[in-house]
């Protein structure tokens, strides 16, 4: 009796303790769920006075990201909101010319003549075996890429104007062209940054930074991604996949300033703080505000800094873009816009947590709102890697890893669909030009006509005999008693498809091999870019 009473007392005490703790436990779970929905600082529109004060170095209060982390986050229906976005750019499917053969296209820019300059990998693919755990390149035995990796394309036709960059690069990544037409490129395999004279000169760089095939920090790089150059000759390097920093250099290549921390290492943040990067993947300048903006790839945002001292200015993100933002370019059109390309989701599983579509986006810097979206024929990309926009905002070019293409888009106020009359006219022009360069068509001789006539006569006679044979068979006039033969579909038990087949039936078609190979290639390219 006493033992039962003791057990009852302990049970009652345990129930009381559990009941007293439940409200705190439930509250803590609720707080965790609310906090986990937000990863980014909310975008706030800036007025003219705020922008002027921030340019002067004061005015707008600095963002406290720890306080913003606890702010409520409004959940939106991404699919619905994406469908509402306008499409203001028209895809130019016929550009470039068909004779342009490309590998994975990693970068795009413009030279002073207005040509579209692209950087591509020819036959090189970045996969999980390309680097070891120390970021050392593992395929030096292949040697440099033997074909031209830099192509200058005419902006209207897409035909190749010039090409260079053979027997030098191992794994091309970033390319930009400065106000003097010098070409700046990065090679992630070599861990180096190069400056070439206009159109590559004689193929020898006039400035080289980093140590070939030796990743590191300090004066070394580790998979540098992009370069951006000021009009005074100072330039910035996004460094890159490992160091997650931005380095500013003088025109002579002397290091001036370094900032940035790696949000892939150390603490994990629900909201990424300023100056932290998860792969600074692309750079663009905003001259009007004296800003340098970086595509913070795996944080899905654009961070902008004052170009003179690297101080944080602002960030740009939208839930419709998602968690990955591969590249950004600036145009002063419409009061200042950022052109952005995102990427495929990095979430694993059949049903990812966040809905994702891969598009190009146009964002207003003043309102920080998305203005429009653009893409290929189905309005989506697969693996876009870089983007460039003309100063007037009329044309956008997107470099894509897979499919290996460079895409062109024209603003819908300028793009005109090609009518059937134009197509016919162009085809007639092509035909006439072909006729002027080729001899007249050869007319068949009399002997050829006779042979053709005999062949037609033989075919007609064969057909007539076959028809007569079929009619006599139907009447039962053929020998060997074939008129008593019954067909499978004439049997009394009814029609059976199996009667028309042999024992094996139909052979199953093999459709999986190519699909699996294509899917595997797409995944590899999206992960190792």
* Number of DSSP E strands: 27
Structural class: alpha+beta
How many individual helices? 7
Q: Name the shape in a single word.
A: globular
User: Largest beta sheet, briefly?
Assistant: 5 strands, mixed
Spans of at least 5 consecutive residues whose pLDDT stays below 50 are: 1-13, 15-72, 418-442, 474-527
The N- to C-terminal Cα distance equals 74 Å
Range of helix content: 10-25%
- Round the Cα radius of gyration to an integer and report it: 33 Å
Strand order of the largest sheet: 1-24-23-22-21
Mean of residue pLDDT values:
77
Q: What is the beta-strand fraction? A: 25-35%
Provide a quick synopsis of the model.
Helices cover 23% and strands 26% of the residues. It has 529 residues and is an alpha+beta fold.
Topology:
Layout: H1 2-36, H2 48-56, H3 65-69, H4 78-84, E1 86-87, E2 89-91, E3 105-110, E4 116-120, E5 150-153, E6 160-164, E7 172-177, E8 183-187, E9 192-196, E10 207-209, E11 224-229, E12 235-239, E13 245-249, E14 255-259, E15 261-262, E16 276-277, E17 280-286, E18 291-296, E19 301-306, E20 312-316, E21 325-331, E22 337-342, E23 360-364, E24 370-374, E25 384-389, E26 395-400, E27 405-411, H5 420-437, H6 446-475, H7 512-527
Parallel strand pairs: 1-24, 15-16
Antiparallel strand pairs: 2-27, 3-4, 4-5, 5-6, 7-8, 8-9, 9-10, 11-12, 12-13, 13-14, 17-18, 18-19, 19-20, 21-22, 22-23, 23-24, 25-26, 26-27
